[in-house]
Amino acid sequence: MNAPLAHPPQPAPDGVTPVMGQYLAAKAAQPDAIVFFRMGDFYELFFKDAEIASALLGITLTRRGKHQGEDIPMAGVPVHAMDGYLARLIRAGQRVAICDQIETPAEAKKRGSKAIVARDIVRVVTPGTLTEDSLLEARGANRLAAVAIRKGRAAVAVVELSAGAVDSVACALEDLAATLAAFRPSEVLVPDKLFSDDAVRPALDGSGGVVQALASAVAEPAAARDRVERLYGVASLDGFGAFEEAEVSALGLVAAYLETTQAGKVPALTPPRRSGESGFLAIDPATRQSLEIDRTQRGEREGSLLACLDRTVTSGGARALAERVARPLRDPLAINEGLDAVEWLLERRDLRRDLRDALRASADVARAVSRLALGRGGPRDLAAIRSGLDIAESIGGLFVVPANPLSAPPQRLLGCLDRLTLSPDLGRLKIDLIEGLMDEPPHLARDGGFVRPGFRPELDAARTLRDDSRRVVADLEARAVAESGVPFKIKHNAVLGYFLETTAKHAEPLFRAGPESPYIHRQTLAAQVRFTTVELSELDAKISQAGFRALAMEGETFEGWRQTVQRLAQPLQAVADALAELDATSALAEWAEEVGAVRPTVDSSLTFEVQGGRHPVVEAAVRKAGDPFTPNDCRLDGAPIKGAGACPRLSIVTGPNMAGKSTFLRQNALLVILAQAGSFVPAQAMRLGVVDRLFSRVGAGDDLARGRSTFMMEMVETAAILTQATPASFVVLDEIGRGTATYDGLAIAWACAEALHETNRSRTLFATHYHELARLEERLDHVSNLSMKAKEWNGELIFLHEAGAGAADRSYGVQVAKLAGVPPWVVARARSVLDRLEAEKAANDKLDDLPLFAVAEPPPPPMKSIMDEAVAALDPDAMSPREALEALYRLKALKV
Ligand SMILES: Nc1ncnc2c1ncn2[C@@H]1O[C@H](COP(=O)(O)OP(=O)(O)OP(=O)(O)O)[C@@H](O)[C@H]1O
Questions:
Q1: Dist. CA 739–CA 548, nearest whole Å
Q2: Ligand 1: which of 615, 617, 619, 622 to mutate, most ligand atoms within 8 Å of CB?
Q3: Where does ATP bind (predicted)?
Q4: So what's the pLDDT on residue 405?
Q5: What ipTM does the predicted assembly reach?
Q6: How many Å lie between the centroid of ligand 1 and the Cα of residue 658?
Q7: For residue 465, how many other CB atoms are within 10 A of its CB?
């Protein structure tokens, strides 16, 4: 019946009990994981694992038996409560190996009376490979990533096991951090050689995931290619595209990790979706953090751009929206396709409402498919698929093709509708599930009770026999009481099956009746005595046989459906994707209508022009408090056009504390993200030449955890911008240089602004309290001053939150201190100190004499373009013709 065991129980070493021998073998197979060792209704943990888990979970640590003369520390968790404990261990960064009983005690007995139940590791649970709803955040993706570097190129492979999606991105080394952070992985695999590599370490640190080092040999291209081909069951990877070596290595790491953690079970994965880094707006980890795109700086979703925007009604839709916002695009054509879809749904309020109502009822198809494929799903996952398929069909009906082709849905929506058209196979599966699966099935297949009556006649027959016999058993109780005069109760347990139970006192006459009595004694407990009769034991056998048969038939039915789902995993995931995309798109339309957002014009110029822009998150907060939000314009242009009316390339933003400088800076960066994510933007109008890299830095943010001083951190991040920003980039710098002595800070801020203007030539907003920087406007061609307006009225400071031309003359820091409740005597003292300082400064203001301003700096060395670097990295002698062709395509992509 059972397949031969992969790892038959081995004889234990001398002096070790057989079970402990099994445990030690499991631990040796997974030395880095906490081993959950199944013993009956508990998972037991031993030795160091027990100590770690008891500390992390607060469970009792006991001792049991001895190993090599020492007590064995032990702790246990009940099987039924495992998920909660698992979740806590995983959150604490642990990996857990589940060592289960893989046969029943009865099966073990067949191998010999002394045989112990065979156990094996059935899975290793790690942060990046979770699939259970109870362990996953419904509205966030859970991803496992791998990083590899070969021939000077980096690659990131990403798998979302819970939904079956795989991504592969090859990129330049300098873009590794941004590429990895865009996926927000929970776990990152890296060859051990790269673990402490200076070029890779910051990317790993910035990714936010738990880092696992694997043996570098696993990433060797030939071995890696074999593994990936095995994972997909294909003879050659080439059918999926021409992968770079680094991509194959990274995918190989993922494949190797899935092999061990899933104990050989093959997940249903989509072919790797390849995207070059040139397809996406690069946003490095520091920028993500500073702009609070999908998490606030404190790590919460609430208060982020994503949370403010999210009007999705399904968890798949929420994940699709999160991905869209986390990885905005760079290609104007693709961006405009996304915008077309949002606009079309925005204009059709009724259809949108019906669509959202329909979607609201659908379950998480993607995760259900993935669990079923991995053999971890249950009847409820089948119900999720049924509802998804049903809704897919009904949604198709909402989009009636109009007579006028001009009002037909745009391409992206048509693509979704196409994927929602069920193939005959999917149609059959849907009907099968509608006809065969109960409306509200149980969670687990094990106990049966999910196949509808009437679906399989032989199952109905077994169930009827079981239920009728149960009824006869119930009648039998009344008959036995009437015939014997003894107050019997019929009960059932796993050991005795059905039995008649009464108290010791009432049982007395039955013992005296002798062998003629129909009541056969089975068991005597302290207060109860249990009997059976020939009829009852026959009925018991019939019921258990029928019950067993019914259960086996339900199991077969489930397995049949499960296999169909596994076979149809890809088209099912395509349906799930289409539902998610429709949800995300209609949610963006809903939000746009709610907040009055407009469609941005996106092209490949170097323009940035916003009229009446608003910060979506701050606006929501300010409005909630009953205040109005002041919209602001912003115009920048990377193209070197001089003369009247030309836009600046770089604006110096000054103004009092609290006047809204940071809000203004971030709002413009967020508008870039929204527009390139294919979303409408909170503004009156916006024109955007696509941005290749977005940078946002706020001066002096502590990073004590990484042991860097505040100012050092600020400079490391600034250095990254100055080496990576291009004329197509967009940079916002907020008070760079403030973390050090005034003149050092001013000098650094000055030099950075100059470099961004002259060398990087990026569109830049530069907020500062160093009002001296305003003089850059006179010295450089494409610099303008902006200031946030405030006015003093009756000695009070009033913020207008309005950005206007010109520089601010002062920071009003003392007034802000007063507003903040600093005691009046301290404010008064500060004011008099300030007056003195200002008078002194006016008397010997020698700034213009400083070399900083007077000496013409040597022109900065020409920065190597990305193209130059890419060309320099090529080694034509070491390339096959195929690699040369690939390289040519890559270079072409860089140029676009
Ligand atoms: N355009 C606006 N309309 C309405 N309120 C605004 C606007 N911009 C900012 N605010 C309000 O002003 C507060 C302070 O803004 P912000 O932090 O941007 O000021 P700041 O100039 O950067 O200050 P500091 O120089 O002290 O860092 C915000 O929290 C918000 O409540």
A1: 74
A2: 622
A3: 655-662
A4: 67
A5: 0.97
A6: 5
A7: 17
Its domain, for residue 425, covers 305-361+378-386+398-452+560-592
pLDDT of residue 723: 86
Say whether 278 counts as a known binding-site residue. Answer: no
Position with higher pLDDT, 298 vs 338:
338
Pairing verdict, β 763-767 and 70-78: unpaired
pLDDT (tens digit per residue) in 641-694? 666 667 899 999 988 878 889 999 999 999 999 999 999 999 999 999 999 999
The mean predicted confidence, pLDDT, of the chain is: 86
Amino acid at 821: G
Query: Is the shortest distance between the CB of 755 and ligand 1 below 6 Å?
Result: no
For the chain, percent of residues with pLDDT exceeding 90? 44
Single residue among 827, 852, 875 that ends a domain in this structure: 827
Please say whether the beta carbons of 252 and 219 come within 8 A: yes
Q: Is any ligand 1 atom within 6 A of the Cβ of residue 659?
A: yes
> In terms of domains, do 348 and 410 share one?
yes
pLDDT at 1: 35
Q: Which atom, in ligand 1's list, is nearest to the CA of 665?
A: 18
Is residue 777 pLDDT above 70, yes or no? Answer: yes
Determine if residue 662 is labeled as part of a ligand binding site.
Answer: yes
Whether residue 738 has its Cβ less than 6 Å from ligand 1:
no
User: Is 632 annotated for ligand binding?
Assistant: no
Q: Could you tell me if 617 and 664 lie in one domain?
A: yes
Query: Could you write out the three-class secondary structure of 706-770?
Result: HCECHHHHHHHHHHHHHHHCCCCCEEEEECCCCCCCHHHHHHHHHHHHHHHHHHHCCEEEEECCC
**Distance from residue 618's CA to the centre of ligand 1 (Å):** 9
- Residue 482: exposed, middle, or buried by beta-carbon count in 10 A (0-12, 13-18, 19+)? exposed
Ligand 1: which residue has its CA nearest to atom 8? 660
- pLDDT score of 819 more than 80: no
Give the residue, 706 or 449, on which the prediction is more confident.
449
Question: Residues 113, 172: one domain?
Answer: no
**Residues forming a β-bridge with 75:** 45
Dist. CA 413–CA 586, nearest whole Å: 10
Q: How would residue 811 be classed by pLDDT, with cut points 50, 70 and 90?
A: low
Whose C-alpha lies nearest to ligand 1, atom 24? 657
- Domain shared by 731 and 700, yes or no: yes
Q: Is 660 in the pocket of ligand 1 (CB under 6 A)?
A: yes
Q: Which two tokens mark 835? A: 């007056």
pLDDT-derived band at 337 (thresholds 50, 70, 90) equals very high
